[in-house]
Amino acid sequence: MRTLSSIEDLNFAAAMPAPVVVQKASDHALLEETLAGDEDAFAELVSRYRNQITSYIYRMTNDYDGAVDLAQETFMRVYRAANRYQTTHAFSTYIYRIATNLAISELRKRKRRRLVSLTGLLSGGEGEEVRDFDAPDERPLPDENLVDTEQRRVVKKAISTLPEKYRAPLVLRDVEGKSYDEIAAILQTSEGTVKSRINRARNFLRDKMRNYV
Amino acid sequence: MSGNICREVRREIDQSELRQSLSNGSEAHLESCAACAAFRDERARLRELVGGLKPVSAPADFEMRLRARIARERDLPAQPFIFRFMTSTPAIVVAAILVVAVAAFVFISQQNRRQSPALATGNGNPATTPAPVTPQVAQEIIHEPAPTGAPDGGAVKIKQLPPQLPLAPRTALKTNAPATNRVEVNDFAMRGATPVFMADRHGEVSLTAPVRPMVVTMYDEHGGTRKIQLPPISFGSQRLPDSRTQVSMTNMKDW
């Protein structure tokens, strides 16, 4: 019988199982599991994309509560149309496309509402006070609680004044960091168009932020 | 040429990743072109500003709210297609089109009702052509001045006029009937109308009351003539029987 000279003589390594490497399921696999009725798989998809989608829609609409609602609607649409999803594109492209369409629809609705409000103002009495019907959401956001500089406000305001066809590619490129081909797939347009629109959007922003650039 | 190079370099700057080194040719150009170098710095600053916006996070209850929404939607009973269609945008569009179509139909039918049926029957359709109207026989009374020295004041001749077609409604002008079937319409505002008298009953002739003594000459079909002398007749306050000569079938002295 062998006597132990030190604690290191106890060799448990052989008895211990090898470290388990958790293979991260792909988005496609999670969606297939969702289709099969696995709600945890869908919850995993949601946790992967909820912040990205909320942030993207917020940059597009400049309204946090509205962005959260639209992000929820985005996931609802993914859930409802899970059986129609085609794996020809990445899931991220698919979900960003849905989010973009919802955000652009919201911007158009706002534009219509503003038009109706202006019509009401024009037909109102002379003493009626001119109000801002599309007031930006001024409440502090989670990321702005610490630092919210004047510069950021100017950038946000400048982005929110961009036409929607320039705003989406600029946000996807310069805020979300997407590649040109991915942006082209999300916006369902050509890469050349995306590049051209981003260039115009930057020129537009440069004019808006002359004092900061 | 320099403009083209600058354009190409700026395009490369715009499409490259932030702070990414450019191609050798572009880097060399930037060394010599201050405008392009300034453009690169400006673009880099702009992209840093935009990219410096911190991402926002979804609220903590995002998943819970989403699960609640999914559960609520799943619990809703499946609505039949017709109900879903009725509450959808296409249904609203279809309803709007139907309303417009009905309104157009009512408007057109109202317009047609205001017009005469002749508009629709102008092409001689036997099913809708109105029944032919018998032309009325009109008669013209000719006052003949009495010859100088004659005892009577003059003579009246009754002459049958050619039959006239009845007046057509004004809307007949709008018809597309062929020229042979077209009814001529006279605008009496432009020229005087031919006098038309109501036809008398058989054996009766109506005359305008003479203001002077007059003679009525009648012709028979063999060329014979008869004259009847009529005294002036007034419908005023005068007493008619006392001041005029009685005319009757039995009064032979006037024949």
Describe the protein in words:
The complex is a heterodimer of chains A (213) and B (255). Chain A is mainly alpha-helical. Helices cover 62% and strands 0% of the residues of chain A. In chain A, α2 (39-61) runs antiparallel to α3. Residues 124-133 of chain A have low confidence and may be disordered. Chain A has helices at residues 27-35, 39-61, 64-80, 91-123, 150-160, 164-175, 180-187, 191-208. Chain B is of the alpha+beta class and 255 residues long. Helices cover 37% and strands 10% of the residues of chain B. Chain B has 8 helices and 4 strands. Chain B has helices spanning 2-15, 24-32, 34-51, 62-75, 81-86, 89-114, 118-121, 240-243; strands spanning 139-145, 154-160, 214-219, 225-230. In chain B, strands 1-2-3-4 form a 4-stranded mixed beta sheet, with no helix packed on it. In chain B, a hairpin with an 8-residue loop joins β1 (139-145) and β2 (154-160). In chain B, α1 (2-15) runs parallel beside α3 and α2 (24-32) crosses α3 (34-51). Chain B is elongated, with a radius of gyration of 51 Å. Chains A and B meet through α2, α3, α5, α6 and α8 of A and α1, α3 and α4 of B.
Strands, helices and their partners?
The complex is a heterodimer of chains A (213) and B (255).
Chain A: H1 27-35, H2 39-61, H3 64-80, H4 91-123, H5 150-160, H6 164-175, H7 180-187, H8 191-208
Helix pairs in contact in A: 1-2, 2-3, 2-4, 3-4, 4-7, 6-7, 6-8, 7-8
Chain B: H1 2-15, H2 24-32, H3 34-51, H4 62-75, H5 81-86, H6 89-114, H7 118-121, E1 139-145, E2 154-160, E3 214-219, E4 225-230, H8 240-243
Parallel strand pairs in B: 2-3
Antiparallel strand pairs in B: 1-2, 3-4
Helix pairs in contact in B: 1-3, 2-3
Order of helices and strands of chain A: HHHHHHHH
Helical proportion of chain A?
Answer: 55-70%
Estimate the strand proportion of chain A: under 5%
**Helix-and-strand structural type of chain B:** alpha+beta
Give the overall silhouette of chain B: elongated
Distance linking N and C termini of chain B: 128 Å
Biggest beta sheet summary of chain B: 4 strands, mixed
Structural class of chain A: mainly alpha
How many DSSP E strands of chain A? 0
